[in-house]
Amino acid sequence: MKVTSMLRAGLILLVTPLATNALAAPASPAASAVKVGKGVGTITALDPRGGTVTIKHGPIPAIGWPAMTMTFRASPPTLLKDLQKGQRVGFTAKARGMTAEVTSIRRQ
Question: Residue 12 in 3-state DSSP?
Answer without folding.
Answer: helix
